[in-house]
């Protein structure tokens, strides 16, 4: 006879998912679900698909590559490029699998280029985290994926050695690669000083910095006082092309939530919570 063990943690997880979906549905978000198994055609794979394959759990069946869902936003982008989601705002919950491990994710997406609507959704996410996940995030890191291409130029941004040095935040490596470019020296300054110097050295990026200021104000109004810029942020996939945000809990080095602006048939913004 098979016996079942009462698992309160599993019940708590399911309750959290229901509360999250209900909270956002009550604010006009449509609830979406997508298959946990994704199918890929070898000939139709994008560069993003190929780059992510080593991190995916994959197998081949009848000549088609199958993979467990690696990331909700990636799945939604793939879905949007093939079909149409009727909702202007969507919320989801469910597992993701990568590098041999399973994680649960809660998230929301806004399919609109309105910064006001996107920032309103961010405020709702922080409100839910404060009320249901043990309090407000203590810190936010914010950036914009257009900054580095404008500072370095598209050609330099495409160089693997430079991208590697940026991901490692290696001031010495960047100095060797970029010579007398001002970026390596900026990395040694406090984040606030970095932005001030960037504004004076590269006046053409002022509109982006003003946009970041608007997002920073949204975060501060939501109760997050420690907001830091990151001028070295690199997009994980090519469709990320705007503001990028990470939220951190007290004493944690891994983000409690992250996301940003991207393009998938139209402008969008999404944030995911890992729990």
What does this structure look like?
- The chain has 275 residues and is α+β, with helices and mostly antiparallel strands.
- The protein has a single domain, classed as BirA Bifunctional Protein, domain 2.
- 40% of the residues lie in helices and 26% in strands.
- It has eleven helices and eleven strands.
- It has helices at 8-25, 47-52, 72-82, 115-132, 147-152, 154-157, 160-167, 171-178, 183-186, 191-201, 206-221, and strands spanning 30-31, 37-40, 58-61, 64-68, 89-98, 101-110, 139-144, 226-229, 240-248, 257-264, 266-274.
- The strands form two sheets. The protein has an eight-stranded mixed beta sheet. A three-stranded antiparallel beta sheet has the order 2-4-3, with no helix packed on it.
- Helix 7 packs antiparallel against helix 8.
- The mean pLDDT is 89.
- It comes from Edaphobacillus lindanitolerans.
């Amino acid at each position: 006879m098979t016996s079942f063990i009462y698992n309160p943690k599993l019940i708590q997880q399911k309750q959290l998912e229901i509360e999250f979906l209900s909270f956002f549905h009550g604010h006009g978000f449509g609830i979406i679900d997508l298959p946990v198994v994704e199918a890929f055609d070898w000939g139709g794979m994008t560069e993003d698909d190929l780059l992510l394959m080593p991190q995916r759990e994959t197998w081949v069946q009848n000549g088609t590559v199958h993979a467990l869902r690696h990331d909700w936003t990636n799945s939604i982008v793939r879905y949007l490029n093939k079909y149409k989601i009727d909702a202007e705002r969507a919320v989801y919950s469910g597992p993701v699998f990568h590098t041999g491990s399973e994680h649960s994710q809660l998230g929301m997406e806004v399919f609109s280029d309105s910064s006001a609507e996107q920032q309103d959704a961010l405020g709702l996410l922080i409100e839910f985290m404060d009320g249901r996940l043990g309090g407000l995030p203590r810190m936010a890191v914010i950036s914009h994926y257009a900054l580095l291409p404008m500072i370095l130029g598209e050609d330099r941004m495409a160089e693997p050695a430079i991208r590697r040095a940026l991901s490692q935040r290696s001031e010495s490596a960047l100095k060797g690669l970029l010579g007398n470019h001002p970026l390596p020296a900026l990395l040694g300054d406090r984040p606030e000083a970095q932005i001030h110097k960037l504004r004076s050295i590269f006046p053409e990026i002022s509109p982006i910095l003003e946009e970041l200021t608007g997002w920073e104000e949204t975060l501060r109004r939501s109760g997050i006082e420690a907001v830091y810029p990151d001028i070295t942020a690199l997009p994980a996939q090519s469709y990320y092309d705007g503001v990028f945000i990470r939220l951190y809990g007290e004493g944690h080095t891994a983000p409690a939530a992250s996301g940003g602006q991207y393009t998938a048939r139209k402008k969008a913004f999404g944030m995911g919570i890992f729990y």
